[in-house]
Amino acid sequence: MKASIGVGLIGTGYMGKCHALARNSVKPVFGSGPQPRLVHLAEVNAAIAQTKADEFGFAKATGDWRELIADPEVDVVSVTTPNAFHAEMAIAALEAGKHVWCEKPMAVALADAERMAAVAKASGKVAVLGYNYIQNPLVRHIGALLEQGAIGSVNHVRLEMDEDFMADPEALFYWKSEASSGYGALDDFGVHPLSLLHVLFGSVARVFAHLAKPYPTRPTKEGTARAVETFDIASVLFEMGRRDQWRHGAQPLGPGPQGAHCAADFRVQGLDCL
Amino acid sequence: MKASIGVGLIGTGYMGKCHALARNSVKPVFGSGPQPRLVHLAEVNAAIAQTKADEFGFAKATGDWRELIADPEVDVVSVTTPNAFHAEMAIAALEAGKHVWCEKPMAVALADAERMAAVAKASGKVAVLGYNYIQNPLVRHIGALLEQGAIGSVNHVRLEMDEDFMADPEALFYWKSEASSGYGALDDFGVHPLSLLHVLFGSVARVFAHLAKPYPTRPTKEGTARAVETFDIASVLFEMGRRDQWRHGAQPLGPGPQGAHCAADFRVQGLDCL
Amino acid sequence: MKASIGVGLIGTGYMGKCHALARNSVKPVFGSGPQPRLVHLAEVNAAIAQTKADEFGFAKATGDWRELIADPEVDVVSVTTPNAFHAEMAIAALEAGKHVWCEKPMAVALADAERMAAVAKASGKVAVLGYNYIQNPLVRHIGALLEQGAIGSVNHVRLEMDEDFMADPEALFYWKSEASSGYGALDDFGVHPLSLLHVLFGSVARVFAHLAKPYPTRPTKEGTARAVETFDIASVLFEMGRRDQWRHGAQPLGPGPQGAHCAADFRVQGLDCL
Amino acid sequence: MKASIGVGLIGTGYMGKCHALARNSVKPVFGSGPQPRLVHLAEVNAAIAQTKADEFGFAKATGDWRELIADPEVDVVSVTTPNAFHAEMAIAALEAGKHVWCEKPMAVALADAERMAAVAKASGKVAVLGYNYIQNPLVRHIGALLEQGAIGSVNHVRLEMDEDFMADPEALFYWKSEASSGYGALDDFGVHPLSLLHVLFGSVARVFAHLAKPYPTRPTKEGTARAVETFDIASVLFEMGRRDQWRHGAQPLGPGPQGAHCAADFRVQGLDCL
């Protein structure tokens, strides 16, 4: 086991800062074991990269993320850039022999996600997506109870996840409002409840969804109104493949047929309802 | 105005009893005004009809509902029979010149419902369906607030309605388990939240639904297992036509485009989750 | 068993109407068995009594409740008058050999309640107080689960009961606003959660309470402001004697000492919080 | 303004680690401004102190907290030791000219708290208690709304705070179970909702409380059962002085008398209810 792990960070927004703080807290939280070294930080230009490297405690800074990936001192790369860049950066890092922790959503297009999965598999490296909720021990405990059949057949699951950070109609148009970011609320945090469904109830068989844009335009810094290209709200009705639910061979104790389907509906909302 | 109103009742199950009790309580609850007279009661045979007429306080009893409809003393007919009979009885009563209060669901097949609506319109009589929730003054108040635009554009509505009366796997197969009763939980009480959506948010544009049968069979009185033919659980995702919402010309105060759509999802469940 | 039971009703307000409707519904709801006959109704004067007797279906009417109690055709007397009259009327009815169903609260003063209990015991008649919630089969089921020790020791119980009927500051001063009615919200409906605590967790060992009058005055019909004499809100913290909880000899399964105390707090509120 | 602030930490338990992590995150979270330097860490002996200093990143370690307080490089002292030591350590640090951030509860005895307050006032130093919830901008916003009279008179406030970390009856007896730690759940986290009441609704006029010990004993490391000396559950009913509520001169908009009292009840619980 290496005494320390060289970390590279691409992107220093909300999640980039979270990754940096998390790496910094490994020693006080977990004590002994290999420690992360904050080796290299990449941003859109060298000046921003240097400022953030100072704040977050990284040794080197670069305005070119390919330099970071080429750095032999970097063992693992955190990809915390806008969604549209995930595929290119994660694939490049894996092909350069780095481990990768890429933020969710995996990619904007299915084909990109499939390429990422294939490269990750071929690389033999550790490739992790930022679905942090499924790491919660509580979720594992729910999964264990379901596998034991503790509540019998599950006929319906409901999840709701609301965020109010775009509730203000005066909040500015930004990268998540751009078409290149995908499906808005559904991509941005709807993937979290979906990740729970996937882990607890198996793969999705069918999806029905309603997406909405309550604010059709948002102001820009220049004071003009720009059409919002992504969705702020999603109501989704899933059918989950139940056979997968009991994948480890346990039988449900309660009533209900094996192999039946389970509906899972959820709502995600990027606006405040107050 | 007539001094009293002659009431005929077809069917004496759960809802038939409710209608009889309600008719009996008109005077103590509302005081003056025309009073119902409990004139004629019909059941599947003369003996049951007589027993129920004694219990509920009806003057005449019959095993043939067409006798009741032909009775000139009957002004209004309550149809509280199993769903499959609603269309035939309600149409016959309207065509005989009676007012009709028919229980929900209106009918099992769309064509039957359309025939009922046409006959009711042509008859000039009062024809009411048993959607009692929409009569609640609270719902009218919600409607008034929506029309005033008090909360701006409504992007999402969620309703849930659970009943536990079929939660026991030992509960017997009965008429609501039969294919002739329609879609089970959705028809039986899912129509109530749907009636609220219709009154408050306008007509339905699209429907996605997941229906389930947690107990594939139920015991019969004879002790055999019979396949359940209707659904016990429904998860439904609606798109409501928003233009209808503001049908009286009021403008929403808040953000959001006119004529946009609104998602409404609901879950109905004929089983206990405990 | 008598073929029918002669009913006398003193008071025709909200609860008096409830008693009349309930008596009228015995046959349709329960079918066979002795039926109530609505014999005699008393109000504050003969004219009001006659009007209400007609509405509710009582045979005789009187402006003097002592005539009703002296009526040999009356077997059971419903006392549904303002709180201040409960003791005098219930005691007189019991002493005249009638069964009594007296509304809650039992009495305004402890001494009155103790006299009522003593007379009821000596009379050998059925004497019931209007604590209808404790008759709910659900509550009995909770009680059975507690006795079986299904959830172990209960350390805390929380009940909340809110009514909005006096939420409007323009609502008129009325008899429940008078000092003779006792403690307001606490007497008026706080006794309901208290009755549940008493039935489920045993007798009260200590009480701490905070009572409030959010509206110090209310308008009268004459248009003047009159000081409210009772309380609209009560926050109450009880200590319940736990030894009583397990009164039928069952032992709790879970952790916790026998004979320990249980706190039960509740809030009653005669005002709308919206 | 100093370029950096020398930090001393006494105690490295749950809250000591929180303080260390928080100091470490100042730069990434807040960017520019004076930065904390982790100067000196004290524990019960030199070995533990050195281990923790390495984990948390402190330059010096000591088994004698008085050495830390005497260290001229230390500007501010975090006191995160068991409750019984707060008074002695905080007072010593203030008298040595240090700023102090002392964890809650302030002290176990009122006299100690009063001494601490007096010394803090005389010292002219910044003395902060660890009531972190009241620093939440949401709470300040609630306070602003109350001051504006946005919801009129507040008649009742209810807070509930539950922790499950002592839910397991096999959880070991530890320092919070000792009589020297004060009142258990009430001292340990009941002070948090109390701090919110104090900030939002003014000072407490009267307190009624019920404290309970669901588990009368807990196992020790040596395998014996030791009597729990503090309380795991508290139900508390407060009367708050309402005149203080409107302390900045704002008048409530709604109904209700000035200077009236407000009840605030809360429940704290150191056990899991599942």
Would you spell out the secondary-structure blueprint of this structure?
The structure is a homotetramer of 274-residue chains.
Chain A: E1 4-10, H1 14-24, H2 26-30, E2 35-42, H3 46-56, E3 60-62, H4 65-70, E4 76-79, H5 86-95, E5 99-102, H6 110-123, E6 127-129, H7 137-147, E7 156-162, H8 185-201, E8 204-212, E9 217-219, E10 225-227, E11 233-240, H9 242-245, E12 262-269
Parallel strand pairs in A: 1-2, 1-4, 2-3, 4-5, 5-6, 7-12
Antiparallel strand pairs in A: 8-11, 9-10, 11-12
Largest sheet of chain A: 6 strands, parallel
The residue fraction in helices of chain A comes out at: 25-40%
* Radius of gyration from the alpha-carbon trace of chain A, in angstroms: 21 Å
Largest interface: A-B, 27 and 27 residues
Shape of chain A: globular
Count of beta strands of chain A = 12
Distance between the termini of chain A: 52 Å
Outline the low-pLDDT stretches of chain A: 242-261
User: How many DSSP helices of chain A?
Assistant: 9
What is the multimeric organization of the chains shown?
homotetramer
With strands numbered from the N-terminus, the spatial order across the biggest sheet of chain A is 3-2-1-4-5-6
Give the full name of the CATH homologous superfamily of the largest domain in chain A.
Dihydrodipicolinate Reductase, domain 2
Count of the separate structural domains of chain A: 2
Question: Remind me, CATH topology of the largest domain in chain A?
Answer: Dihydrodipicolinate Reductase, domain 2
- Let me know the average pLDDT of chain A: 83
